[in-house]
Amino acid sequence: MTAELVRGQNHPLPDTRLELRVSAGHPVVAGATLGDEQGRVAGAEWIAHPGAPVRPGIEVTGDVAAEHRIAVDLAALPDTVHRLSLLLALPPGAGGPVRFGTAAAPFVSVTGPEGAAVATYTITGLDRESAVVALELYRRQGVWKVRAVGQGYEGGLADLLADQGAPAAADLAAAVLDAAGPAVPAPPVAPPPTAPETAPAGVPADASADASATTAISYAHPGRRPAPGPAAPASGPDTGPGAVPPQAGPAGQAEARPAPVAGDATGWTMDERLYNQVWGMFEDLARSVAAYRSARDFADHRLDRAIDEVLADPGARVGGAGDAARAAARATHDELMGRAQEALDRDLAQLTAESEVVEPALPVAYARWDNPVWHAYRTPEEPPMAVRLGDLHLPERTGLRIPFLVRLPLERGLWVDSGPGRTSAAGLLDEAELRRLALDSAVAHTARLLAAHPAGALTVHVLDPADGGAAAFAPLVETGVLAAPPARGAAGVAATLAQLTERVDLLQMAVRGDASEDLPPGFDLSRQLLVVHDFPHGFDDRAVTRLRYLADEGPSVGVHLLMVADRADAAAYGPVLDPLWRSLLRLTPVPDDHLADPWVGHAWTYEPPTVPPGSAVLWQVLGQVAEARRRNLD
Amino acid sequence: MTVNMTKGQAISLEKKGGGSLTQVRMGLGWQAAPRRGLFGSRTREIDLDASAVLFAEKQPVDVVFFRHLVSDDGSVRHTGDNLVGGVGQGGDDEAILVDLQRVPVHIDQIVFTVNSFTGQTFQEVQNAFCRLVDETNGQELARYTLDGGGQYTAQIMAKVHRAGAGWQMTALGSAANGRTFQDLMPAILPHL
Predict the structure, then answer these.
(1) Which residue in A86, A524, A573, B121 has the most C-beta neighbors within 10 A?
(2) What does the alpha-carbon distance between residue A324 and residue A302 come to, in Å, rounded to a whole number?
(3) Which class does domain A3-256 fall in?
C-alpha cells in the first residue's frame, strides 16, 4: 500500500535499500545531505550532489534532469548519520523556471527493492522558493522513517544548506549548482578577488571529495556575507534580502513582524481607516487581556485544587511528600503564568508600538489635547466619523491607552458625572473640586464637538440656572461660539427647553411627512447641543419632562444633550429619572472603571481628555471656530 | 494535494526549519441530498453547524459556535452560520479560523465538531466534507469525507492539540448524536 503523505506526515520504511524517485516536469538538480543527530551537515563531504554523486550509502544522478532516481542503502550509511534530506534546486540560468511557484509541483516517491512505492509526496504550496527539502529519511530509535518536509527556501540552495548548518553554505551551494552539468550554461559571476574575511573558504568548483581543501575562489555574492558559523537557522540573521524562508519560526516572526503603520485598516478615507484601526486595537487589547486572564484564572484554580488534594491526603501531611507536591504545584503554576505573561507581553508590545505610530497620526477630532495637530487647527469641511471622548486602559498595562472614539452624530446624550464616584481617585477630591473638574471636562468635550463640525454646523446652548459655572464656561462665552449667552434662572431654562422641544417637534413632523422643504424659511438646520449644568436646579416638573423628551427624541433629529450633574442631586425625583440616566453615556471627570467593551466585557478605566495645564489650545481652537462661524453668518 | 485522513491518524502541524503553522482553517461544506418522488424538486434544507471547543486540561474553557462566533481571547473565529449549505458548490460553507499563535497558553486541545442542527442524519447529506487548511497559503492539509454516513446527527471531527512547542492534529471521526455541541460533551470527553 502506498502512503500519500502530506506535509509533516511521516511513514515507517520497510527496508533499508530504497530508491528515491523525483519527477518534476522541468529540469532540477537533485541532491542529498547527510545530517547528524541534530540534523546538522558537517561539511561538503556529507553532501551527495552532481559534482560528487557517490557517498557511502547513497548515489545520486549526476545531471540536471526532470526525472531522478537516487539509490539509498540506509544500512551502509555511517553510524553518525541520522538524517538524510532529499533536496531539489532549480538550476540558475538554464532557461527554465526560476522559482517553484511557476512550475509544476514536484512529485517524489520512496520505493522499495521491488519497485513498489512505499510513500509518495507532491510538494505543493511553493512560491518564490528556488530550493526545497522534499523528504527526509531519519533514524528514530534505530528505526528509519520517511517524513514529507516540503520546506522551501527563497534564498535558494545556499539558504537551504545554511539552515542545515553546513559551513560556507553559499560556496557549497555555488559548487553544487556549478557541478550540476551542462544544463548550467555559465558559472556565477566572477567573484571578487578578496573574499570577506569571515567567510570560510569554499570548496573548489570541481567539488572534489576533499572538502577540507581550501581555495582562494569564493562563490559568495560580493554583496552578501555568508552565514557565520555552522548554524544559521532559517529564522536567524538572514544572509541578504529575500533570504528568509517564507515560513520563519516564531522567533523570526517576532523580528520580522512588520512595523505597525498608522491607517493600516480598511476604509474609504484616512479618517475611516484610523477609526477602524483604533477600534481594531481596542478589540485586540480586550482579547489579549482576556486570554491572559483566562490563563491566570485557570492556573490559580489548578494551584488551589492541587493544594487541596495535598491537604486532603493524610499520607502527605507527614514527611516531605506534601511539601514536595506543593512545591511542584507552585512550579507548574509559575511556569504557566510565565508563558501567559510572555504571550501578553508580546501582544502588548505590538499594540504599544502600533499606538506609538497611530497616536501622532490622528486628526484633531481623535487627537489628545496635547497633540501638536491642534496648533494647525482649521475648521473642517465636513464632520469626522467620530470624536475622542477620552482614553481607555486596563490594569494589565495602564500605559497603553486606547482612544475612546464615539461615532458622530451622537446616538446618545452625554453625562459628565460630577458626583462622588466609586474610585479612589474621586474619593480623594472634595465635592466642589469634583464639580469643577466635571464642568471643565464638559467644556472640553463641547469645544471638541464644536471643533469637529464645519463652521455653523453645530449650535451650542448652555443652561446655567444658578450661574455657578461662569468661570468654566468663559472659553465658550468669551470667544463667541455660543448662539446666546448661558440661560439663567428658571425662566431661562424654560425658554431654552421650549425652543428646543418645539424644534424637535417640527423636525419630526417634517421627517415623518417627508416635507423638509416646508420648514419655515431661514430655518437653521444645524445640529444642536444643549449643555445642562446644575441639574435639577431651576427645573420644574414641566422642564424635567421636556428634558427627558429631548434625551429620547432629540438625537434622531440632531438635538443632543450634554449633562453635567450629580445623580444624587436629583434623588428627590425618585425612579422617574432612571431611564434618563440610563439613556446617557456616562463619563467621569476623574479616571473611573465603569465602561465595558462590547466583546468580552472587561471593565475599562475611562480617563477624560485633559487640556495640558497652562495651555491656551482650547482658547485658540474656539477662537478659530468663532471666527469661522462669523464668516459663515456674513 | 489532499490526504483523506483515517480515524485516529495524527499529523504534525509543525514544519521543518522551526516554522510552524500559524493560522489554520477548519472548513465544512455540504449539500442536501435531492429528494425523490412527488415534489422532488423541493430539497430539504439541512443546517450543519461547525463548532470548536477549547479545553484546558480536559476542562472546557470556551466554545466557538454559531451563537458565540469569536472566542473571548480572539484566537478562534467562526465565519458565520450557514443554514442551508451548498453555496460554495464544493467550497467551505462554514469555517472556523484558528490563530494558533494567539491561543491562550493554558488551552491545550481544540476539538472540532459537526452537528446537524435540523436533525437530518448524515445519510441525507451529500458532498459533505470537513477539511483543515493552512490559512497562510491556502494549502489543504487534510480532508475528511462525511457522506455515506450512518444514522447519526453529529460527528466529532478532529482535535488540534499541543505537542511540544507546536501543534498536532488528530483525526477523530467519531459518530455521535446531538443538536449542538452541548449534547456532544459526553462523547467528546473520552477523546481528550
Answers:
(1) A86
(2) 16
(3) mainly beta
pLDDT in tens, A167-186: 877 888 888 877 775 544 43
Supply the pTM of this predicted model.
Answer: 0.65
What per-residue confidence (pLDDT) applies to A169? 79
B100: nearest CA partner in chain A:
A250
Question: Three-state SS for A565?
Answer: strand
Write out pLDDT tens, residues A524-539: 888 999 999 988 888 8
Q: A386-391+412-633: which CATH number, 3.40.1130, 1.20.1070, 2.40.160, 3.40.50? A: 3.40.50
Q: For residue A88, give how far its alpha carbon lies from the nearest alpha carbon of chain B (Å).
A: 15
Residue A519 to chain B, least CA–CA distance (Å): 46
**If 0-12 CB within 10 Å is exposed, 13-18 middle and 19+ buried, where does residue B40 land?**
exposed
Rg of chain A, C-alpha, whole Å = 37
Chain B residues in contact with A597 (beta carbon < 8 A): none
| Length of chain B (residues) | 192
pLDDT of B35 reads 64
A333: three-class secondary structure by DSSP = helix
Most confidently modeled of A44-48, A145-149, A459-463?
A459-463
pLDDT given for residue A353 in this prediction: 93
**How many residue pairs from chains A and B have C-beta atoms closer than 8 A?**
127
Alpha helices in A467-593, H assignment, sequence order: 470-479, 489-512, 541-553, 578-583
Say if the Cβ atoms of A298 and B3 lie within 8 Å: no
| Percent of chain A whose pLDDT exceeds 90 | 32
Please give the sequence-ordered ranges of beta strands (E in DSSP) within chain B, or none if there are none.
10-12, 23-32, 48-56, 59-64, 76-78, 94-99, 109-116, 125-134, 139-145, 154-163, 166-176
What's the rounded mean pLDDT across residues A324-345? Answer: 91
Alpha-carbon distance of A94 to A113, in angstroms, equals: 34
Q: Which residue has the cell 461615532?
A: A407
Residue A361 CB contacts under 8 Å (≥ 6 apart), including other chains: A262, A263, A274
If we measure between CA atoms, which residue out of B123, B111, B173, B172 comes closest to residue B147?
Answer: B123
Q: What is the pLDDT of residues A544-598, one digit of tens each?
A: 999 999 999 999 999 999 999 988 888 888 888 999 999 999 999 988 888 999 8
Please list, in sequence order, all residues whose beta carbon lies within 8 angstroms of the beta carbon of residue A142, skipping any fewer than 6 positions away: none
Chain A residues near residue B102 by CB distance under 8 angstroms: 287-288, 291, 343, 347
Domains of chain B: 10-14+21-32+44-191 (2.60.60.30)
Cell numbers given for A564: 453635567
Q: Are β-strands A585-587 and A414-417 bridged in parallel, bridged antiparallel, or unpaired?
A: parallel
